[in-house]
Amino acid sequence: MKERNINLNFIIRQKLPNNKLFFIFLFFLLFVNNFIIISNLNAEYNIYDKKINDEITSINKDDAFIVRGIDVSVVTDLSEEAKSQAFIKAEHEATRILVSRITENKSLKINNDVILPMIKHKEIVWERITHNSYRAKLDIHFNPQAVQSFLNNKGIRYGTEYTPKIVIFPIVRSSKKYKLWTNSIWQSSISDYEDKIGLLKFTLRQWKITDLIDIDHITAMSAPYNKFIPILKNHSAENIIVIYIEDIINNNRVEINLRFLNHTSNKYKFISYTKKENENEIIFTERIIKNLLEKIDMLWKGIDEFHNNENYSSILFIKSKDWPLVEKNLNEIKEINKIEFKENLGYKNFDNIIINYTVPPIVLSSLLKEKNIKVENKNGKAYIILEN
Predict the structure, then answer these.
(1) Where on the tree of life does the source sit, at the highest rank (predicted)?
(2) CATH code for the part of the protein at 312-386
């Protein structure tokens, strides 16, 4: 459509007729003219946005094969010799980082003749040259196809892209109290590893109280995906990992349940850690965090190093009169695969049941809560209580 330009000066110079129709017609022409201009501008911006997005997608696709910020410094008799040695040194260090980033192998040694064909180019961020030394910071760009071919020939499993951005939602249960990850040891430990573990891209933030209206320490492990959308939007992410920590430092053991959630998947993982004799609380916590993040990274690469604890069992006490209704509700929970009922075992007015189920106990508690069933611990025993 050809754009029509209106000469407003010509119109203004003419004698304006005393007619409402003329002004309506003038307004219409101005509106159409501006609409055409704005439409053309929007079309140009849409093309520009698409171009930028395509460029970003193209860049991000190979980001895993770019190792940035390699610092090198070499002193020799001649500056050219120093520069040559510095490049070799940078190539080796970048290869080590790349292999550690995308594979499960942290100690693979690669010879020079293998490294060179895998490097696409080197980018000098900055350099300083003297008569006998060379210092520089380099970005090394690898050829993804060449790297993958090498790893395939070696039979080494690997990942080729960073994870989508993940929001980590941490909860700690300590001394029977539930709280977000405000404990400074846990908080600082995990923040230290942001963007430093393999292909793992995550963010950890302090949450606003308004984010948690529909989510608490129990529902975070079972709430539907849409409950997390406000939090995810704040961080421009679509994936969340709930890390639920049973902080049992006094017993030298920590148990962790994880929930991996996005709009198409909901999975649970479990792992536990035992404190070593020479570890204080800070060292123990740092070891847990590093190892936990590494396992999440390996899971993205297709290697599951978590405990395969697919079945759980709990012994519960229940009032005899409540059993018929509770039994009906328990049978409606698909995550419970077996219920064993035992009549009064010496506890007045109480019977005993053993439940086998496939989700972590904290998740079962949430599922029971939906059925108006509460579990309370008294004197080391768990009792089922029907809520009105």
Answers:
(1) Bacteria
(2) 3.30.70
User: What are the angstrom distances between the C-alpha of 64 and each of 143, 275, 377?
Assistant: 11, 34, 49
Q: Record the pTM.
A: 0.71
* Distance in angstroms (rounded) separating the CA atoms of residues 73 and 94: 15
Among 217, 214, 280, 227, which Cα is nearest to 249's?
Answer: 280
Angle between helix 281-300 and helix 184-191 axes, rounded to 10 deg: 40
CATH architecture under which domain 63-154 falls = Roll (3.10)
Q: Where are the alpha helices (DSSP H) in the chain?
A: 8-13, 20-61, 79-102, 112-118, 144-154, 184-191, 229-234, 281-300, 323-331, 361-370
> Based on the number of CB atoms within 10 Å of its own CB, is 70 exposed (0-12), middle (13-18) or buried (19 or more)?
buried
Of the two residues 221 and 71, the one the predictor is more confident about is 71
Least confident of 64-78, 138-152, 294-308: 294-308
Q: In this structure, what DSSP letter does residue 171 have?
A: E
| Full DSSP string of 298-366 | HHHTT---SB----EEEEEEEEGGGHHHHHHHHHT-TTEEEEEEE--SSSTTEEEEEEEESS-HHHHHH
Altogether, the residues listed in the chain come to a count of 388
pLDDT digits (tens, 9 = 90+) for 268-286: 998 989 999 888 888 888 8
- Fold for the domain defined by 166-300: Rossmann fold (3.40.50)
How far is CA 89 from its chain centroid?
A: 33
Residue by residue, DSSP assigns 60-76 as: HHTGGGEEEEEEEEEE-
Q: Which two tokens stand for residue 210?
A: 């308004």
Question: d(Cα 258, Cα 171) in Å, to the nearest integer?
Answer: 10
Distance CA 124, CA 71 (A): 10
